């Protein structure tokens, strides 16, 4: 992984070039304070302080220059992302990078497992005077890169076994305990995970990481780990299958959040639970019309094998509550309906607890990682009825698809349990500064801000 600690450092008066963030609304006044050569350079570069613009300001000597970057606010994580990509290698100084340090760091990250970049660039180092912000920003850059790299890895190299190994590797860094149940060992205790994953060449797994003092408040995080989704016997078309390596994006978010918790040594008893499967097609694949068991004891009639994520989450959420957690959060790339409603950048968030929902929404606002709360609308619960089983996994008609998926999960949540569900896309479809096309952490910063706020109160 990229050494982000080398890219964002504490300012101890090392030699560096000054970097100025200039807002368009104050540009004329700022420009008037400069010398003639600098004003001429800005005019030649047609610099107008628009977000993402970068201009070199000459100094007195041949190698004496500083940088102007267009942008309104260092609270915007992406305010310096363009500069980090455009400037020559070297060391730059800003008084306090704020949240914009994330974009500076992550803009220089590359997923290079399969090929090296054609234009390898020397690092751009940013010096900032806020030691806590530097530390926290580096940690968030590491967590964001973890999500991106896992989601970008194709299914031939990230099957359920490899996903389990990635979780074991992260747990080892912080002294966590990781337990993995796989294959036929899932049949009795996790029948829905077994049913969904049994047709794949890579056997399904239930991965559980535990960390922290058992006496501390309990936080449990669950992530959907479908490493590839063919749709099963209700097979997807080619266009629908093209991005299905990313269907483990929920697991990537859950692991990244768990990493942040452990790295910060938060006073919690942490559990991370990931059901990891490939939804494949073979003679033993589960079928439309089947009725499958779940760990909770509820039976589910299969209306569509492409609605498999909610099935494996049902078993995982049941396990998650068996040690009575104070807070339960799950992440999943669960429905196309959420993307139709909210687009790729805005995760749908559902919660049965007003305090938890408020903390998550406030975290999204504070970190500019927005969420949109969707309703657990009780009037739609009847859509999940089945004539054969306790509930069906795929209501007919296609109405309110994200809501009915969340309501399905809610059936596996105990009364009184404080729970939130993220239906996130985990992907950037069009490149932007600091956000290349590919895997993306959406909702991670919001969740981390909320978790810190809740548990640092203890």
Automatic annotation (TrEMBL):
<dbReference type="InterPro" id="IPR043472">
    <property type="entry name" value="Macro_dom-like"/>
</dbReference>
<keyword id="KW-0031">Aminopeptidase</keyword>
<dbReference type="Pfam" id="PF00883">
    <property type="entry name" value="Peptidase_M17"/>
</dbReference>
<comment type="similarity">
    <text>Belongs to the peptidase M17 family.</text>
</comment>
<dbReference type="Pfam" id="PF21337">
    <property type="entry name" value="Peptidase_M17_N_1"/>
</dbReference>
<protein>
    <submittedName>
        <fullName>Leucyl aminopeptidase family protein</fullName>
    </submittedName>
</protein>
<dbReference type="GO" id="GO:0070006">
    <property type="term" value="F:metalloaminopeptidase activity"/>
</dbReference>
<dbReference type="GO" id="GO:0006508">
    <property type="term" value="P:proteolysis"/>
</dbReference>
<dbReference type="GO" id="GO:0030145">
    <property type="term" value="F:manganese ion binding"/>
</dbReference>
<keyword id="KW-0378">Hydrolase</keyword>
<keyword id="KW-0645">Protease</keyword>
<dbReference type="InterPro" id="IPR011356">
    <property type="entry name" value="Leucine_aapep/pepB"/>
</dbReference>
<feature type="domain" description="Cytosol aminopeptidase">
    <location>
        <begin position="304"/>
        <end position="311"/>
    </location>
</feature>
<dbReference type="InterPro" id="IPR000819">
    <property type="entry name" value="Peptidase_M17_C"/>
</dbReference>
<dbReference type="GO" id="GO:0005737">
    <property type="term" value="C:cytoplasm"/>
</dbReference>
<dbReference type="InterPro" id="IPR048816">
    <property type="entry name" value="Peptidase_M17_N_1"/>
</dbReference>
<keyword id="KW-0464">Manganese</keyword>
């Amino acid at each position: 992984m990229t050494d982000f600690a080398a890219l964002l450092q504490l300012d101890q008066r090392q030699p560096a070039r000054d970097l100025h963030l200039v807002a368009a609304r104050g540009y004329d006044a700022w420009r008037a304070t400069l010398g003639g050569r600098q004003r001429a350079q800005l005019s030649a570069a047609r610099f107008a302080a628009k977000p993402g613009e970068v201009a070199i300001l000459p100094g007195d000597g041949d190698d004496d220059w500083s940088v102007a970057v267009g942008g309104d606010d260092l609270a915007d994580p992406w305010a310096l992302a363009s500069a980090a990509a455009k400037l020559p290698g070297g060391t730059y100084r800003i008084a306090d990078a704020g949240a914009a340090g994330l974009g500076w760091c992550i803009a220089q990250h590359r997923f290079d497992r399969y090929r090296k970049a054609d234009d390898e660039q020397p690092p751009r180092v940013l010096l900032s005077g806020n030691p806590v912000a530097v530390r926290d920003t580096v940690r968030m850059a590491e967590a964001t890169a973890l999500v991106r790299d896992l989601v970008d890895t194709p299914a031939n190299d990230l099957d359920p076994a490899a996903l389990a190994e990635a979780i074991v590797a992260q747990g080892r860094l912080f002294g966590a305990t990781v337990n993995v149940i796989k294959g036929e060992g899932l049949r009795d205790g996790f029948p829905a995970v077994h049913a969904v994953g049994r047709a794949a060449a890579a056997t399904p797994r239930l991965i559980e990481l535990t960390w922290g003092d058992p006496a501390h408040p309990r936080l449990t995080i669950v992530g959907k780990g479908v490493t590839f989704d063919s749709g099963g016997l209700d097979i997807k078309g080619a266009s629908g299958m093209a991005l299905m390596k990313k269907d483990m994006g929920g697991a990537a978010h859950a692991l990244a959040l768990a990493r942040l918790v452990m790295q910060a040594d938060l006073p919690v008893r942490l559990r991370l639970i990931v059901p990891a499967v490939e939804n494949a097609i073979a003679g033993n694949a589960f079928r439309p019309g089947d009725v499958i068991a779940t760990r909770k004891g509820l039976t589910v009639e299969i209306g569509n094998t492409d609605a498999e994520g909610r099935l494996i989450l049902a078993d995982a959420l049941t396990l998650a509550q068996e040690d009575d957690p104070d807070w339960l959060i799950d992440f999943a790339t669960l429905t196309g309906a959420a993307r139709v409603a909210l687009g790729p950048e805005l995760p749908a968030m559902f919660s049965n607890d007003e305090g938890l929902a408020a903390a998550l929404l406030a975290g999204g606002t504070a970190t500019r990682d927005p969420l949109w709360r969707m309703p657990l609308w009780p009037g739609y619960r009847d859509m999940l009825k089945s004539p054969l089983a306790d509930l069906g996994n795929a209501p007919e008609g296609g109405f309110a698809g994200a809501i009915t998926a969340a309501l399905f999960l809610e059936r596996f949540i105990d009364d009184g349990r404080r729970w939130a569900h993220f239906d996130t896309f985990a992907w950037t479809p069009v490149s932007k500064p600091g956000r290349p096309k590919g895997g993306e952490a959406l909702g991670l910063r919001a969740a981390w801000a909320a978790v810190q706020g809740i548990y640092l109160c203890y």
